[in-house]
Amino acid sequence: RQADAFSKVMQTTEGCLKDYDSLTPRLPKTGETIHGHKFFIGFGGKGANQCVQAARLGAKTAMVCKVGKDSFGNDYIENFKQNDISTEFTYQTKDAATGTASIIVNKEGQNIIVIVAGANLLLNTEDLREAANAISSAKVMICQLEVTPAISLEALTMAHSSGVKTLFNPAPATADLDPRFYTLSDVFCCNETEAEILTSLAVSSPADAGKAALVLLERGCRVVIITLGAAGCVLLSQAEPVPKYIPTEKVKAVDTTGAGDSFVGALAFYLAYYPNLSLEEMLKRSNFIAAVSVQAAGTQSSYPYKKDLPLDLF
């Protein structure tokens, strides 16, 4: 029965973070104090963001994650339920607080973020084993690095061995990433900053992204996507090992926080529900959805629902 219940799940193993957003005219320099003009608290965490975006597009989703046994953790579980996300594998612990992120956004919509992972780091092997049937019956599983890398690697291994399509978002990036992350990733998706950390190559243009993507592809990924913010993304695959640049439409950004997660969540949705679309078309649609998200403030609060998007995206 459980396998049937999760036959369409986009399964994500990742953290939940309570976001503290401050809006300022510009980002402060080291040691500088400046005035902000708005402050608000919202829901975040890369995996949670990605799961919420996929769910709002119509995906049947579940989270494998851990939050604190505190008010933020309780709020997060309720938030998942309100977004029609399964909380069967959302665990609570007394041993750590729910993760938090401090975010500062300037008037151009650019941001800087500091996260304190908290309960995310306590997700463990036993938790994954409890979710094993859901993971093995998923269409797509996303992993990131806000939980311990060993747990993300274990989850990817479980999914990969069951033939589940794996989408790995190596964030926050680390230069000494275990080589198995590449070989276990059907789709390896990072932004330009993460690509620089992983390859030691400067990435400031689509051409640069193509060179970095080739390095990552040679490490064993099947598909590499490097996102470039407002410039779109670059695609490279084992099947077509020539970089393909996919631009996105220009919009007035209000807040870019979580735009990459909107993109990844949308991509997971298309991989699970529209597998016959070309990857290029999936990325064009994911670019569009991420561009919608930057035109509103906040992270999950900016993510669009299917009913608010053009019909030709579905």
Automatic annotation (TrEMBL):
Q: What is its EC number?
A: 2.7.1.15
What does the entry report regarding how activity is regulated?
Activated by a monovalent cation that binds near, but not in, the active site. The most likely occupant of the site in vivo is potassium. Ion binding induces a conformational change that may alter substrate affinity.
List UniProt keywords, sorted A-Z: ATP-binding, Carbohydrate metabolism, Cytoplasm, Kinase, Magnesium, Metal-binding, Nucleotide-binding, Nucleus, Potassium, Transferase
Q: Which residues form the active site?
A: 261 (proton acceptor)
Q: Which residues cross the membrane?
A: none
The GO cellular component terms are: cytosol; nucleus
| Cofactor detail note | Requires a divalent cation, most likely magnesium in vivo, as an electrophilic catalyst to aid phosphoryl group transfer. It is the chelate of the metal and the nucleotide that is the actual substrate.
The residues that the entry says bind K(+) are 255, 257, 293, 296, 298, 302
Which GO BP terms, alphabetically?
Answer: D-ribose catabolic process; pentose-phosphate shunt
Q: Pathway involvement?
A: Carbohydrate metabolism; D-ribose degradation; D-ribose 5-phosphate from beta-D-ribopyranose: step 2/2
The keyword Nucleotide-binding is assigned to this record? yes
**CDD domains linked to this entry:** ribokinase
Q: Where is the Carbohydrate kinase PfkB domain?
A: 21-304
Any Pfam family: PfkB
Q: Where substrate is bound, by residue? A: 17-19, 45-49, 146, 261
Q: Which reaction does it catalyse?
A: D-ribose + ATP = D-ribose 5-phosphate + ADP + H(+)
> Which InterPro entries did the record assign?
Carboh/pur_kinase_PfkB_CS, PfkB_dom, Ribo/fructo_kinase, Ribokinase, Ribokinase-like
State its role: Catalyzes the phosphorylation of ribose at O-5 in a reaction requiring ATP and magnesium. The resulting D-ribose-5-phosphate can then be used either for sythesis of nucleotides, histidine, and tryptophan, or as a component of the pentose phosphate pathway.
Q: What is this protein called?
A: Ribokinase
Q: Which organism is it from?
A: Myotis lucifugus (Little brown bat)
What are the leading ranks of the lineage? Eukaryota, Metazoa, Chordata, Craniata, Vertebrata
